[in-house]
Amino acid sequence: MRFLTTFQFFDFLDTLASLFAAFVLGTLIGAERQYRLRTAGLRTNVLVAVGAAAFVDLAMHLAGSDGAVRVIAYVVSGIGFLGAGVIMKEGTNVRGLNTAATLWSSAAVGSCAGADLLAQAVALTVFVLAANTLLRPLVNAINRSPLDSRASEATYEFMLTVDAATIDAMRELLVERLEAAKYPVGDVEVIVRAEGAVEIVATLVSTAVDAKELDAVAAELARRPGVRHATWDVRTKD
What is the pLDDT along the chain (238 residues), one digit of tens a residue? Predict the structure, then answer.
């Protein structure tokens, strides 16, 4: 049995140290994800970190630093497929991007541990935890701050829901009222809705607007016969 002749006790201790470090650091990252009830929680992050450490450590023992570099490249691409599994699209919203990025970071932590860069692995864990915890209040504050429609470049859409019988007249009226308010229309799309309703979506050429002016146009059009609903929306370009 080759194991009896190739076994090196200190090499084995080195592997145990790498795997143990990956386990502990992966636990710290995964515990935060588990506490917030994310799709990839404690066990997933630990397994990713330990698995990455095992592959890199094995390559280090078999082929040295060059082999570890090649394996790390495969770990990076492989975790990309795993991360794609936790990303979900719900309508126009995408969920799971932060969880996928955390898995990617756990793999990086494990790779550092497997390459015997324990200090770097600890430092990376601190930064990952800081990103998922300390930055959360800042993210919430930014999300709650109102969008300055005059200063931001964005795509503005004006939506008019009307009876199907009035579509031609209302489309012309919508374009006329927007252009009268100094907001030229770049494109007009007609979407058929249920129960005889049609939605007219006008995309404005302007990248900055005065919200009060568009609200006034919406209020005026909403009073017209045949108009069921009038509103506008903004989508940032970034």
Answer: 576 666 777 788 989 999 999 999 999 999 988 888 777 889 999 999 999 999 999 998 888 888 888 899 888 888 888 877 777 755 445 677 888 899 999 999 999 999 999 999 999 999 999 999 998 888 777 766 655 555 556 788 899 999 888 888 889 999 999 998 888 888 888 888 777 788 999 988 866 778 888 899 999 999 898 898 898 887 765 4
- Which of these, 178, 162, 136, 116, lies nearest to 32 by C-alpha position? 136
Q: How far is CA 14 from the centre of its chain?
A: 37
What DSSP line would sit under 180-210, residue for residue? HTT--EEEEEEEE-STTEEEEEEEES-SS--
Q: CA 180, CA 213: separation in Å to the nearest integer? A: 11
Tell me how far apart the alpha carbons of residues 172 and 64 are, in angstroms, rounded to a whole number.
72
Looking at domain 154-236, its CATH architecture is: 2-Layer Sandwich (3.30)
Sign of CA dihedral 71, 77, 80, 85: negative
Domain boundaries, the chain: 7-143, 154-236
Q: Which two tokens stand for residue 56?
A: 């890199």
